[in-house]
Every structure is written in C-alpha cells, then in structure tokens.
Write a structure and sequence with these properties.
Elements (H helix, E strand, L loop, with lengths): L8 H9 L2 H20 L1 H5 L1 E7 L2 E6 L2 H9 L1 H12 L6 E4 L1
Parallel strand pairs: 2-3
Antiparallel strand pairs: 1-2
Helix pairs in contact: 2-5
C-alpha cells in the first residue's frame, strides 16, 4: 500500500462498524448479554445455550415449571430484551 492510499484509523473503523452485518451481530450479542439482567439471576442459573437465529432467541430451560412460566411472559420478555438493546433484535423467544 502506498502512503497516498493510507486512510486514518478512525475512518477505517467507521466503515467497518457501519456495515449492517456487524451491527446485527453486535446487537444480538448485547441482547444475549442482557438476558441475566432482564430475567434475574435465579432464572438465568436455570437457562443454558442462548443463541439467536432468524430473529428468534432460543433458550434451553432446565425446569419444565420454569419453562411454562417463561412462556407465559414471552411477550413481555421479548419487549424488555429489545428495549435493553435499544432496537428491535428478536421477534420471539423459543424455549427448549
């Protein structure tokens, strides 16, 4: 690379961070990290394997009773998680 082709680091980073794919993954990561805050530590201790695919948050639940309770709160949890990130990331939650 020639010196005249060089760009300032902040310009390069801005172009990388402005990509939609990067923002999507970053928001998904933020949403999964906010799970313990939204559901609380007791619920978080009984959940495993969070991942997001096609706008759905998949969560493995250890207890059938807890799974039922969370299913009843799914709409509220979805809104709270999206609000925590500050943008729409997931449409629904799938409890496994």
């Amino acid at each position: 690379m020639k010196k005249q082709d060089a760009k300032p680091l902040n310009e390069v980073l801005q172009s990388v961070f402005s990509e939609d794919r990067f923002h999507t993954k970053l928001n998904e990561t933020k949403l999964m990290a906010s799970w313990p805050k939204v559901v609380g530590e007791n619920v978080n201790e009984n959940t495993r394997g969070l991942f997001i695919k096609q706008g759905k948050l998949f969560v493995k639940i250890a207890s059938p009773a807890l799974k039922y309770n969370l299913m009843m709160q799914m709409s509220t949890l979805t809104k709270a998680l999206n609000a925590e990130v500050g943008t729409h990331v997931i449409d629904t939650i799938i409890f496994l």
